[in-house]
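hi!! sorry for the late reply, been swamped w classes. u asked for the two structures so here they r. pasted raw, havent cleaned anything up. first the sequence of the first protein and right below it the tokens
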Amino acid sequence: MFATILASIGFAVSLSYLSLIFPRLLQEWKIYAHRKELPPGPKVIKSGLRKPWLWFRELNKEYGDVVYLQMGPTPTIILGSAQAAWDLLEKRGAKYSSRPRFIMGGELLSGGMRGLMAPYGSFWRRWRKLLHGGFMNRQSLTYRPIQSLESKILMHDLLHTPERFRKHLERYAASVIVTVTYGRRVGDVDNDIVVRRNGESMDRLTQVNIPGKYKVERYPALKYIPSIFAPWKAEVLRQRQKDIQLYTELMDEVKDRNARGTLPTCFAKHLLEEQENLGMSDLELAYTAGSPFGAGVETSAGSLASFLLACVKFGPQFIPRAQEELDRVVGNDRLPTFEDLPQLPYVRAVASETLRWRPVAVLGGTPHASTADDVYKGMFIPKGSTIIAPLWSIHLNESDFPEPNEFRPERFLEERDYPGTLGHSAFGWGRRICPGMHLGSASVELNIARILWAFKVGPAKDASGNDIDVDIFAFSDGFNSSPLPFQCSIQPRSQKHASVIEQEFQGATESLKTYTPVEIGNDVNSVMHELIHETLKDKDILNVILADCVGSQNSSQLSSEVAYFNSPPNDSPGGIAPVTDGQHRDWADNTTSAYFTDTGTTFKAELGKRGTSGDYAGVGNNGYTDFTCWQMDSEYLYSHDDKNCFVAYECNHMTSPVPIPSASPPAATMSSSSTATPEADSGLSVGAIVGISIGTAAGAILIAAVAAFLIYRHWRAKKQAQAANDPQDPRLETGGPGTPKGPPLANTIWQGPGVRELETPQVYHELHNVNRPVEIQSVLIRGELDGSTSRAELHSYDLPPRYEFGTPISPGAYGNQKGPVYHVNRVEE
């Protein structure tokens, strides 16, 4: 019997090989069979780009609205026009509403808990129902009083400290989102712990979601490398534990306030009411509540910053008309309101143009995934393709928006053939459209109206009184993008306008007291043993560290303690409770309980064995509340009483422990006794050998077949790319048969490598051909002239470049290129 069982195991090994490899082999064969029907695209794929949307736009210009890339095992489709995105993501939403696999952001960082990245399925449907119920049109109207009150605070801040306008925009956006979500407002964006920790979480999420940045997205097997050998993995796992701690603590606070009857209407309250109906766990609910923060804050604050940038660069072209409309409709004795917006078509056009001109979601938001094979305009799109619709390509498409880098609100007053009803695509498409679009667009429209009503916005002045120019292409990297720091002048239009702002501020301050921030933790400035008892029972403590300590002068002085922090762990604990039942390092020895004589409290810690940093370690209780603990690397953290203390475990505070989704406490070892006859032993060995051998052989054959096929494809693509890129290709010299089609080669304009000085720092590749200097008309320009470089690279359409990094010559936007390169000096004005 045992022989049969192990023989079956051997065959199961074979089937497991087949199950892993067959889908990939089938996908590769399907793509190969349809290779002539695939959308056009480049042979050479660039990865690790800091701003991939710039490259995507170049691809769309060169290959059309639908571009095919083979990024690792996943086919990728880049959509470069609003019509293509609408046709696929909206009209054919049933096929394009899923998500690709996000190993870094969705699995390692989020544990499958973020609905934004969830594939189409029951979890995502529950998540979408909650988000739409909390933020779509009808419900979003209930949040307008909060938006209006916070906007009045923003106007007051801009009036008194205009030089800090970026911080004021961030505070406004953060406070609206946190108030709407948790019923607690943000008074100071720099010191609010919820904003700070949420910001850290969103920064990490946007960093890991850049397409092609991490090789694990292309080679999923890298996910299983132990964290000790993969710093990139260990880093996101640590952030994951911090995220769980943050979201569960916020929901615990909401539950507590709701039980006391002090929780105002907010999204988290709506979640609690719907939890039982939807069958969502506490952790799913906590992550759902945290969903609005990243998109909401970045969209509102980034868009308003882009609006101010447009005011500095293009203000005289649109501000007078907008202010004339505001003065006519609103007057000068009150602020504009939501009720005024329908009568302010030009101001609303300014808001729409802001969302179009410099979209925050430059990559078009989170990519979609196709769940079935499809054909679009004769082009084959394979099942499982990643679909990216970068707004940088779509919103700057000359066919839909002539002179796309010009700020022209009039576009949205004219009749235009553009899919949808908004005239832009800032909030996405189809079933994956942004649930917070109504809240976000309302914030942008209202604050643009009030800024234009209240202030004169223009260029800042230097010491000589000259205008300080701004760079409209200087934007941040990442999944979302917003303007890099710039200077501008913000002054009240009149004393009357200033006095109205002051009056409105007083009323708003009083009304917002309902949402006054709840202070988390007490400011304990020193380590005092007499405060330990209060610290132990303080339900507002944020972090608990189980630390092992050694004497700074005498290494034999070993002890352990529990350290409490009112903020993320640092070198200043808010309270310490030493273990007093021995002079050894208890946590390192896996102590399960520790008695504190100072308080008569026993800290019970049911910890597992020490393992990899970030692993679930167990639970603890300090006599007042429960904690969930995770293994940490032994790193120095703080010192006191001639002792240096090192982290052993990090624990979070909550009313009930929340387990990590993908980890669990070490299971108890199961044992059973049985006897086997010599015959059974003999059969077992033969069955195991035969079964496992067959399984291994079958798997090896399949692996070899797939490897050979992939190697052939790679060799063929490389050979084609090399032939296309080789500057010594005799076809280019002779102009004989096979010469690539396109305009004349660049060296027919300038003989040999050289330098051509231009009179102005224009970004020439953004200009129409007829507006370029005659020497570079009909020449494709790669790279950008920006504040970081003084050169741009030129080459012709018919000689695609090869790129390499590391040489300090003309990095532009994409790196340096080989081939017939022509440099253009930038001459400063």
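now the second protein. again sequence first, tokens right under
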Amino acid sequence: MNNQDKIINNTEGIYLIDAGAGTGKTYTLVKRYLKILEKGLKPENILLVTFTVKAANEMKKRVLNEAENSGLISKIGFRDFIEAPIMTFHSFCSKLLKMYGRNAASFLGTRENISANFRLIEENYYEEKLFVKFYNQFVKRAGKKYEDIIKSVGGNPLVIFKAIKKLSSKGIFPAKNGFAEKDNQRLKGNYEEFGKLFDKVNEPCMGVRGEKQNELYKNILAKISSNAYIDLPADEEVLEGKRANSKMKEKIFEDESQEVLIKFTNEIYYSYIEYLLKRNLLNFDFMVMFAYLLLKNDANVRAANRYDYIMIDEFQDTDEIQFKLMMLLAKENKNGSANLCGVGDWKQGIYGFRNAEIENIIEFEQRLAKYIEELNEDTQRINYAGDKIERIMLDVNYRSSREILDVSYHTLFTEGKKDEDIDMEFVTNLFPSPLENAKEFEGKTEIKFYTGEDRKSERRIILNKIKELVDNSKYFIVEFDEKGKINSKRKIDFKDICILSRDKSFGLELQREALKNNIPMNYEGGLEIFSTQHGILILAWLKLLLWKNEISAWIPILEAENYSHSEITKIIRGETKEDRFTCEKIPAEILQFIDELKSKDSVLLQAEAVLKKYNLKDEIGNRLITIISQLMSSDFLSLNELVKTIEDSARLEYDIELINTDDAVSVMTIHKSKGLEFPVVILANCNQKIFPSTKGESDSIIFDEVLGLRNKKVFGEKNGYKYVFNNWKTDLSLCVTKSSEYDEERRLFYVAATRAKQYLYFTASRPSQFFIKLAEKNDIEAIENYIYDKEIKIKKEQKKSEAGISALKNYSSNEDDEFDSSEPSEFETSFRRYVRRLASGINILPEIENEADEMKQAIVKFDDMLYELKRTAGQIVIDAEFHFPHKNGVSRGVIEIAVFKDDSIEFIIIGDEERDAKKLEFYKHAMAQIHKMKNVSGRIYSLKAL
């Protein structure tokens, strides 16, 4: 029996599966799931969790297919499979809180409740904006108390935001009266452990001519030589001979400012949680936190939500609190253990910046024992024993060639900088040899390194290589049957090739160049979407709705209208210095578009009109509409605030797929490629300072299990100047505890290399140590300025993006069942605009002062109805956008007013009962499918009845 069969057939007990890249992890999990069902259990008794919605959906789909093929669906029932708890961590926590979580926040000491219809903040950027808004209010209230800390943070409050998220992932939660004593001790750090580390890294370093400076000495010297500190002892006190002065050990560790920092952190952490709860909001971190607190503190909830079997996919991406949460859900089995299975690969742990801990795999046995003890400290919550654990390694790769697996193995031993000391023993103990290959490609595999003179030259090399791969008959794809036997060979298509890069900008540059050269290429990943032409023009026109004479808005608009630079200069600057710019100088046919925008009911419709005007209704346009819709549904309600937010968002990246054709090369970041595979991979941009990245840890407030909570900055006075200085105690402490800065970069290198099945290439223009050392380790000489000058014929296909779907248009499931498209009256359009603003809390009295009595009376009647709704509603959402998937695609719509209560949703459409009847029925159907746990009703607020 091989290890894969062993995992599938042994379902009882606690298992840690070390599943290497391409070793059939998903296949094994699905087969194991079905094996459990064959024992007579129902899907509802098995919890299978992973991290992405895409992965959860794929897992459920494969379970359904296998269950149908094996006859289990007819035996158990289709509905049981559809409702099976195969989901993400966050989906599970959301479901738990909506069912039981009303009072979960009380465990922190707050009186705020969690409503069943809380809104989840899904985009990190929106939460960052929200946090800054909260922080400014907090500073006004408590700024004097924590003046020095606030000054040390300066204009970057997000360092506090990140520290809060870090503490949440560690299970360190705030409370009304301060952190719990145990958490308080963790935040102060562990001096005993620090002392051991200090002594270890401060051991003498012997060279040929005797003792030489050890690494700690060098690191401390580099710090004190390049930074300004307050009260730093003299060099001879800190350094002694060729080592750090051991007498300074305690002085370096003990930081008097830490106590105030801990109090400040508790207060701002607790206040921020309350701030979100009052707005009926939760972020992902707090949702997991409250789910954990609920399970830990409520025995009834715990008992009602325990599972006979739990499997956790991508276990290397879990943090401390997620590990503990899963432990609380596991039921004791007949052998006194639990049926708990973690599946992952520490070598693919690339999300440390999201607080994931690969130690959950590496130290699985120790952590399980430790967490059982912690969870049972005051009362017994874990009934099962955690002493019988079996580790099984999946070490047969079903994806890549023998040569690619060998090169991939070497990535974990590749130096990130010259003379880096890698802990080889650590890696080889966990991963003693390369993965075994299950497939033989008959020698049709290739690994090469290419270098160019500059960034442009590197892009040219990549495009030449793509041309050669799809044109030269010596390259072909070997395909296998289910038994791993070769069943066909075919030429390489563009879609077989993937370009990976450490950063996003290189991929976008490459895609632009590829399309110029008629090479089809699809970009998948982050894009500075508000810096595109789409975003710039939307921002420009929205600005003009506020300020008609805004020069910065007119310049891109005139450029888009094909005015030359000299013509734009003449319009903006005028003939003389005294000739000031006003919008009267703009041609009337352009200026009238402002009036057209003003006639639109909402900012979303205005943005749509801008995109339509410039023929920009494509993937980027649709994504922009979605982002603006999310912004408008948050705290940013006024047009003025929205414009400011968009301006601030210019450099922020949003995930997007720019799909031009089906048969196209893919280009994405390495992080984006996780879980994917391609016959051909080109790892590009292996350049100095790019890969490995040298950015390092930039946040000033940090948490470390040894050092506790620390501030890298301190506000103080030196030589008569008040300034923000580096905190020498934190800097020197980090010299002791900091592990290799390139470990996670090496794991990222490994992930990139293991995406390739048959062909693997590396490119650079300023080769990094990763590029140089990996080539050396594999005895491969880099090829300079490679050229493939043969012209190739490329079949042009219809661009997918040309028929971009409007983000606001409503689609019914039947093409013949269209909504009545007759135009609303001018009165209805104006009324809608007014009542939306009224419902958003905006004072519209000055705006309607000159309106006809008929309009005023209609608005007063609507306001009376709105008052009654607000009195009984849990939440009222204006312009509530929904996305409803069905067999013909995705229907989208915007409901003008949605009233959310604990057990029901009522929505209101402003319109005509006859004209909008079909729309009402469709909206009812869509909302009922989306919110299955609630009673849904809807009505048309008819103006004819007024």
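hope this helps!! also noticed smth abt the second:
The first strand starts at residue 14 and ends at 19.
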